[in-house]
Structure to design on (132 residues):
């Protein structure tokens, strides 16, 4: 089995895709106006509109209702990401901070309030763990 993607349900697909394109520097692939994906080598961030939810089960997911998941991106330079996003991101939860487990981490909220973590391994163990 492979972990493939995480899907975020939103009331405004275009706004959220614009945010993630700017925040990550990646371009989204659109299937239709209700569904887009940002694909990396290891996983995909899918962004879907509320009209897709009933296809699975009515009321199975609600936009802007997440308080338990953090979307994470491994980056080469978290401090550079912070500089690039300053003035664009409205809600930084934490400026770049080195965590006890060896990652330098930037925590912010996307326009729907979802937590997003950009991190760079900085300790020898973390660097070894995330070697690409």
């Amino acid at each position: 089995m492979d972990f493939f993607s995480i899907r975020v349900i939103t009331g405004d697909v275009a706004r959220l895709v614009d945010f993630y394109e700017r925040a990550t520097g990646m371009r989204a692939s659109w299937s239709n106006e209700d569904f887009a994906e940002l694909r990396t080598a290891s996983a995909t961030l899918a962004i879907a509109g509320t009209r897709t939810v009933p296809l699975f089960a009515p009321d199975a997911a609600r936009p802007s209702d997440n308080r338990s998941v953090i979307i994470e991106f491994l980056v080469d330079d978290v401090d550079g990401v912070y500089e690039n996003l300053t003035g664009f991101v409205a809600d930084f939860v934490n400026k770049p901070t080195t965590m006890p487990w060896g990652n330098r981490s930037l925590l912010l909220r996307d326009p729907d309030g979802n937590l997003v973590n950009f991190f760079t391994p900085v300790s020898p163990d973390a660097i070894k763990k995330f070697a690409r």
About this structure: DSSP finds four helices and eight strands in the chain. The two ends are 20 Å apart (CA to CA). The longest strand covers residues 91-98. Strands lie at 5-10, 29-32, 35-39, 44-49, 70-74, 91-98, 103-109, 115-121.
